[in-house]
Amino acid sequence: MNVKLTYTGALLAAIMVLLGGCGEANDAPDQSAASQAAAVPATAATTQITSDAIEAAAQQIDEAGLMRHINILASDEYEGRAPSTPGGRKTVEYLETQFKQIGLKPAFSNADGASYRQAVELMEITVTNKPPLRFDFAEGEPLTLPYQDQSIVFTSRAGDSTAVQNSELVFVGYGVVAPEYGWNDYEGIDMADKTAVILVNDPGFRNPEDELFKGRTMTYYGRWTYKYEEAARQGAAAAIIVHEDEAAGYPWEVVSGSWSGAQYTLFTEDGNAGNLAVESWITKPAAEQLFERVGMNYNEAVAAAGNASFKPTPMAAKASSELQLSSRESTSYNVAGLLPGSERPDELFIYTAHWDHIGNKPDADKEDTIYNGAQDNATGTAALIEVAEAFLALPSAPQRSVMFLAVTAEESGLLGSQYYGENPPIPMAKHVAGINIDGMSTYGATDDIVVVGYGNSEMDDYLRRVSTEQGRVLVPEPTPEKGYFYRSDHFNLAKKGVPMLYAEAGEQVRGKPAGYGAEKSKEYLQDRYHKPADEVHEGWDNGGILQDLNAHFRIGVAISNSEAWPQWSEGNEFKAIREASLAASPAGN
Predict the structure, then answer these.
(1) Residues 132-141: what's their mean pLDDT?
(2) What is the mean pLDDT of the chain?
(3) Cis peptide before 372 (omega within 30 of 0)
């Protein structure tokens, strides 16, 4: 089925009303897009590109082109698209060729001139000896946790080896230091040379009724990246995160698959010497054994960690693990094409998607070892090309520039987007807003669209108007405790103050019984996510993807062809960053 979506002129009228109400951020910083839209008549901001022209351009987004790109990128030939591998290099070449062929300009510059590539220097670290994690006690036999089965042990320090030897364990609850919440899980403890034992997620996860943090909605304090960073700041030698499926948002197999094999960090001259010597995960059953051996009850310890009065608890055990390493410097690339703006080319609307996946992990016990990453994220990478083709089919370029950015090393901790955020070709204060595309739904057209980070910014208002024309409603993410807002590349632009939208087809699948979408989402997470089974599967349906891409295209046209500066919502953690960024910009907005 070759699906193309059509819309009426009412959609463009609604967008024009919205644009008429969204003036410069400095002119009306306190007015929401919705309130302005109700009060101010439409302007001529979008009249240079008519509704008919936008409708015609949107037809460039079609199923045949989308699947052509997905099938290529998710094929075994691309070997799972890991950074700095033959498959990764092939992916970069493919994207560069596609952007050039469809007519996008190079977005970067280097010593050789204009380029579609932004070099991202990486440190690739592989644990070569599959080390177990051992705990010794004052009495009794050691507790040894086999690598991958019950523990994962790795490091972000470069070198030939690293180790933790007889390091005293300290249970530090959620491992959070959050002054704004009056919370300090490390209060009164000297962590030098010690190993922190940490719960995943944050205190609000298990105690939403106590109004801790943001309740069931995960904050950045719940992310594994933060927990290792904070343990290092506290002077710890190592940190062990206890995995639980619900609290982490994914099963143990995701940990054992994703954290084994080559791991990447951004290159630093000191080889990340300030990071933890050892970073680890253990399963919940293993944690229960460990706590029992030191005379503690795991469930009681978890309950205690949810109180603001919690204090770190020394455990009568010592941790040891010896890691043999293979370390090398490598270069991967962000790839971006640019459609220069016709009037204000220094202002930018950006689309982002990560092109990388986990690669090929040979295992004698497994027949299929290639992590193809069809849904995660060949869908989003293909989407960039399709949306770009729609923009290029417009009769004239929008007033502002539009960038299509495919980033590397997302699966290794959002490294490509982190590097871009720190080294943008256009100042971040000139990034007006953007849309991130990651892991698109393959279950069919829907009556709803899920917004990750619902209510964060006025980007929701743009999406609401487009989605209404599609017959869809906006809904908050059903599992905010999984912290998806902090798990994809939009986060690194949001940290710089750029309002970013991350939304995809929901679970109310058209023509299917209630619960079908939720069942398929669960099936994907359990059976395919970060596994070799993430391939183009039986029953793959692009209906929801095509809805999303048409919506994303129209939002991009609306904002790039206007003077609007979408705002973060009041109280949002990124609002102050944005205001400071705009205030410091030499030319303002």
Answers:
(1) 97
(2) 91
(3) no
Strands in 104-250 per DSSP E: 105-106, 108-110, 113-115, 117-127, 133-136, 143-145, 151-154, 161-171, 177-178, 183-184, 195-199, 238-243
CA distance 305 to 320: 25
b/e per residue 319-340 (b: at least 16 CB within 10 A): bbbebebeeeebebbbbbbbbb
**CB count in 10 Å sphere of residue 293:** 18
Q: Which DSSP letter does residue 221 get?
A: G
In this prediction the pTM is 0.86
Give yes or no for a contact between 550 and 61, defined as CB atoms under 8 angstroms apart.
Answer: yes
3-state secondary structure of 483: coil
The neighbouring-strand residues paired with 142 are: none
Q: Which helix (H) or strand (E) holds 315?
A: strand 313-339
For residues 196-227, one letter each, b for 16 or more C-beta atoms within 10 angstroms of the residue's C-beta and e for the rest, the string is bbbbbbbbbbbbeeeebbbbebbbbbbbbebb
Nearest CA among 1, 77, 67, 2 for reference residue 537: 67
Tokens of 400: 């502002």
Q: Which residues, including other chains, have CB under 8 Å from residue 209's CB and lie 6 or more apart?
A: none
| Those residues with Cβ within 8 angstroms of residue 229's Cβ, 6 or more apart along the chain or in another chain | none
Q: Are the CB atoms for 198 and 230 separated by under 8 Å?
A: no
Q: Hey, which residues does 110 pair with through a beta bridge? A: 113
Q: What is the rounded distance in angstroms from the CA atom of residue 403 to the CA atom of residue 436? A: 12
Structure tokens at 514: 């209630």
Query: pLDDT band at residue 365, thresholds of 50, 70 and 90?
Result: low
Grade residue 43 by pLDDT with cuts at 50, 70 and 90. Answer: very low
Q: Rounded to 5, what percent of the chain is helix, strand, coil?
A: 35, 25, 40
Nearest-CA neighbor of 194 among 295, 90, 318, 313?
318
pLDDT of residue 18 exceeding 80: no
Min mean pLDDT across 184-188, 247-251, 404-408, 506-510 is at 247-251
212-215: long-range pairs with CB below 8 Å, 24+:
212/181, 212/306, 212/308, 213/178, 213/181, 213/183, 214/480
Give the pLDDT confidence score for residue 366 in this predicted structure.
76
Question: Is residue 129 predicted with pLDDT exceeding 50?
Answer: yes
Contact between 368 and 122 (Cβ < 8 Å): no
Q: What is the pLDDT of residue 19?
A: 41
Statement: residue 237 has pLDDT above 50:
yes
- pLDDT-derived band of residue 382, with 50, 70 and 90 as boundaries? very high
